[in-house]
Amino acid sequence: MSQNKIDKMVGQKAELDNYIGQFLNNRYLIRDLIGKGGMGRVYLAEDTAKGGMAIAIKILSLSLANQQMSQRFAREIFIGAQLGRKSEHIVRILSYGVTEDKTPFYVMEYLQGKNLKQILKIQPLTLSEFLDISTQICLGLQCAHQGISLKGEIYPIVHRDIKPENIFISEDSKQGKIVKILDFGIAKFLTERSGMTLTDSFIGSLPYCSPEHMEGRKLLDVRSDIYSLGVLMFEMLTGKHPFQTKSNSFGTWYQAHRFQMPPTVEQVNPQVKIPQILEKMLMSCLAKEISDRPQNINQILEDLEKVKIQLNEVSHNNSSDIINLSIPIQLVPVTLLSEKECLQKKWPKNKPIARIGFPHLLHTTQRPIPTFWAMLPKQEITNFSDKIHGTEFITQMNVYPMLLWVTVLYNSQPSLTKWLPYFLDLKDNRGEKIARSLAEVGYYHLLFFALEDPDCCSHVMTLSLTANQRQQLVDCLDMNQQSNEIILPNQAKNLLKTEYEKLKLDILRKLAAKPKNEKEVSKNWMAKFLEIFLKLLSRH
Length: 540
Prior knowledge:
Phosphorylase Kinase, domain 1; single chain; 3 domains; elongated; 18 helices; Transferase(Phosphotransferase), domain 1
């Protein structure tokens, strides 16, 4: 790209951001905005005193109102700079300063890569990747928690804001992936500044705060970081946060961190299997009481090392040894393996070549996996293969132990929504086995076969059940053991069909009420805007 084009792009962005194109301290030329959050904005810049070397500058979201705040900011930057020199897993701080409008900034090494939040959105982590990243985070925290020397005294440094956005993974041609912790000391500086209320100080960090941090305790120790690390590691393993909240308010998150018991990894994501030692360590990190957590990072590093040893031992054994292990240590979702098996399946010879669907238990090396096989025209499969899908269970257990299992495939047009229903009679041994497998496994594979080419499976989806749906299945299976059939199976089917038609109407009504795409949202918004604008004109 030519220099003229670069300058033109910078000029266009500068219209939106006052800092782009500016010189800070007559030395740092700000080129582009590369990140922003609750604490401030991060820019790509050039150090003109060092031949245009690329650096990163973070400009905080506040002004230094007085000398005391300036001194506190300088102290925290000094601490961060010391830590960056001591550990390669803490970002290096090179300098700091204040803009013309008294906004503090600091200069960091420029890192190329992604933060952990961006990585987790793109792809799942393997167990070896999880162990590598977690170990490097722990090494950075270990260095900080060991403390730095100030006036002859050793002061342990607590980060206070461990979260995915503050974990950066950069690629090094020699060392591979290098993990760096960002924003050391900045959380403490921002929460101590004058005029702050308790809830203001947690903007953007509520999901990862320890209970004692949210209670406003000023003398936080390393175990507060260990709690935040536990939340982070849980998310790395499952792809989900350990606590579910109805809102993002301070009070809601405090209730979750202080009183909600963390679920196991398997409860949140049944597809992920981890060693018992790792599960135990994770639950220990998430303990509500400080005294119940690991007392230092060293304990976590020791457990991570034990899991690495187990992983190495497994990799040197043959496949039969791996199957017989009592402690599973494969983090890559088992669905990837069973999905591959599904793609090798052929349409049963005893089934007609027609628009039909039926369930089947797929027997794998680990356990039977519930599947649903559906034959459709190839064009319909293409329409639905990458769309939103869902599952519903309709029951009338008080009159007969039967489930209507419905797989719903949504399209952009409600009229094209596809329904795949199937009756599971729990009095029938096969129906009972499939329902039990759905409850235990927590997901099922949907296999598509094309009418035009019916021999082999053309596409596979994996649909997960919610915790409520799994409990619903368990409750139905329990009721089946003691139920008395009041009506006949065919009568039960007719009853469930009536409920099914009501469900379809309800779902279609909701789909029709939603905007179909971003263009429609934009059109609706513009129409509303014009309506308000015309009303205003009519008044003048």
